Hints:
By secondary structure, this protein is mainly alpha-helical. 66% of the residues lie in helices and 5% in strands. The protein folds into 2 domains: 57-154, D-Maltodextrin-Binding Protein, domain 2 (3-Layer(aba) Sandwich), CATH 3.40.190; 173-413, no CATH class. It contains 16 helices and 6 strands. α1 (6-18) crosses α9 (220-253).
Amino acid sequence: MARHNLSTVIGFEFGRNLSKPRFWIITLVVPIALMVVFVLVLLSNRSTSATADAQKNAHISFSYLDQSGVIDDSLASRLGGTPTTDAAAAIAAVKAGTSQAFFDYPADPAKQPVKVYGQDKDIFSNGIYSSVAQALLQSSAQQKLDSPQLVQLASGGANSVTVTYRDGQKTAGFNGLIAPILYLVAFYLLIILLGNQMLASTLEEKENRVTEMILTTINPTSLILGKIISLFALGLVQIAVFALPLVVAYTLFRTQLNIPTLDLSHLALDPQQMLVGALILIGGFALFTGTLVAIGAIMPTAKDAGPIFGVLMILIFIPFYIVTLVVSDPTAPIVEFFSWFPYSAPVTALLRNAFGSLPLWQGLALGAELLILAAIVLRVAVQLFRYGSISYGSRVSVRNALARRRGEGSTAAR
């Protein structure tokens, strides 16, 4: 039987995991939860919109005292308002239930709050009083401006367009951030969703006591590589499943959920950023996968491997504690350290790449570093798996396993 049948391992591992109910439960929990949230938000938006329309169209009777001189009496009358000069009497009428509300406008509404008094309805319906008071004040202020243009400017209707340049070239701004930041999202999804499966990929055979039988028919390198490739493919399946409810929600319920229109015409794709991002993503995923496979080869059970797995997960989140420094001062020593330290490099480098602060030479060098270290770690993982696969009850000694390999190499040379 061929001992290098990589395709057999990939097909077996991929199919086996896809057929497990646990895989689909874990994969579908997030999309189903998102869909439930979308439905609840949709229903809530409809209810909120109906409530807002009802409040907007509601008619209440109120009295008001205008010390500012801004309120338009004719406009207030159309809304159900009656002017008064006695605040104490107006408040007393509200307390007695003979008046629905009273608005006390101060001399300077821009600096002093408008005092609103009303009969209690419920915590949500009570908002109608302040809504009417504010609407009356705003509409009256706009009435005093003769120019529609000034009205629009006064209500914050002015727009601005910002154009930035770097080294004489126009930069994409926020539109250039979207595409490369997706590499970081993909990295986190792959590691977080598949981390336990990476760790269990070698522990499962050890705990089931079938490793030695497998190694009689398949080369250890082919076995490990097949597991890693199948895990990457499973990660792509999970990402696609996660993206499905987002696409459905945007396509069918964008208006109801108040989702802004996504204009892809302004999306900037920088070939350099996309190339560097792909290189770092692949290198970082390969390094973490090889490391977790090596840990699985050393440890006798998943329980023993759990603490080390937790440390690796912490390492990929540490760069977010300095994210402001990554954006504002990417050449700071601590940022450079996290950029070159192998297990924090993927996240830090992908952040810098997305924000355009990672030079091409450094991105290529970091990608090469991650790929080279991943190859070394993978080779060590294969060696540890070869000699630690039958160590069922104790932790494998890395020194002894590697020394045994060197000893066999010397014997073969003689």
